[in-house]
Design brief:
The chain has 77 residues and is mainly α. The protein has one domain. It is built from five helices and no strands.
Amino acid sequence: MKRRSSDFVFQLIQAMTKSEKRQFKLYARRLEANQSAKFVLLFEVLDKQKMYDEAQIISLIHVKKQQLSNLKAHLYK
């Protein structure tokens, strides 16, 4: 089921400038453990999407719907 761009994290990422996105990626990946962290993958997937598609996100990141909400909350913080 597709939602309009009503997701706050999606709107936030879409509103970021190219340099802000770069700075976030550098900050998030500063530790080796975060190189392949799921919240970084979520950021990249949301950045590439034109419209918010939750089903596509779940299939690309390989998480459950409940985990997705936790990842979005972590990313938003």
